[in-house]
Amino acid sequence: MSLERDLRDLARDVAIDAGDLAQRRRAEGVRVAASKSTMADIVTEADREVEALIRARLAEERPDDGFLGEESGTASGTSGVTWVVDPIDGTVNYASGMPSYAVSIAAVRGGETLATWEALAGVVRAPALGETYLAARGDGARVETESGSDALRVATDFPAGTLLATGFGYDPRTHQGDIDTVRRVMPIARDVRRIGAAAIDLSYVAAGRLDGYFERGLNPWDLAAGALLVEEAGGSVRELPEDGFGRRMTIAGHAPLVDRIADRILDGAAS
Ligand code: IPD
């Protein structure tokens, strides 16, 4: 067994338990919360509670590792491995009762960004969809469901045009720029989806369900596991320099498609 596979298997077990907890809290929240503001509080609590579970379980098994989580911040370790965790990616979907939310857990070595870390293992567990996406560096990527396990491959040809996904930041000042980006990319798209959970967008690219994905302003925990899934499924993930709001663009898919999308975004030139 390699370190990468050990980390993946641990992340898988923890992500499944964390996803169960999120799903349970969601069901309880619906029962007890009538108003939106109460719902928002419950979501915040669920985020924190799920991250606390993940953090405690990982610390129990691997006390020397570092941790970088959306809710509880950073702790450095001594092993060289850092866990990058989004307890509930797609929080707005989660709060709104839509099933596209996921627990995202990755183990990385090196820095705290896509450009500076080497991802070792990544798991995206979407409990309400019954899917667990798994990757270990050098060992490929797969999805597990109740009916079995399938290897993941990114889509490489697009006879009907490319099916893409994107996301928009929550800051209204950035919306015009994001809409302009969609306008530039649209000529090479068959259609564009907005799923609302970056970890699921990236998992779907790895699975070849989506051909490509682009979004500005992702955080390390949104993309750490999903980017490794895409790479281990034969695809590539590229980042473009920050815009005026300090948001890097992330583009994922088959490498030539990623470059076509990047060309479109950078200058809108035909490609
Ligand atoms: C968000 C989701 C969303 C994306 C945002 C992310 P969160 O993560 O992935 O799809 O558009 O950029 O921040 O806040 O739900 O964990």
Describe this entry's structure for a reader:
It contains seven helices and 13 strands. With 271 residues, it is α+β, with helices and mostly antiparallel strands. The protein has two domains: 3-151, Fructose-1,6-Bisphosphatase, subunit A, domain 1 (Fructose-1,6-Bisphosphatase, Chain A, domain 1, 2-Layer Sandwich), CATH 3.30.540.10; 162-270, D-Maltodextrin-Binding Protein, domain 2 (3-Layer(aba) Sandwich). Strands 2-1-3-4-5-6-7-8 form an eight-stranded mixed beta sheet, sandwiched between helices. The site of D-MYO-inositol-1-phosphate has 15 residues, from β3. D-MYO-inositol-1-phosphate binds at residues 70, 86, 89-91, 167, 169, 196-198, 215, 217-219, 222.
Helix and strand topology:
Layout (H helix, E strand, L loop, with lengths): L2 H30 L3 H26 L4 E4 L3 E3 L5 E9 L1 H6 L5 E9 L6 E10 L4 E6 L4 E5 L2 E4 L10 E5 L8 H11 L3 E5 L4 H9 L5 E5 L3 H13 L3 E5 L8 E5 L1 H13 L4
Parallel strand pairs: 1-3, 9-10, 9-11
Antiparallel strand pairs: 1-2, 3-4, 4-5, 5-6, 6-7, 7-8, 11-13, 12-13
Helix pairs in contact: 1-2, 4-7, 5-6
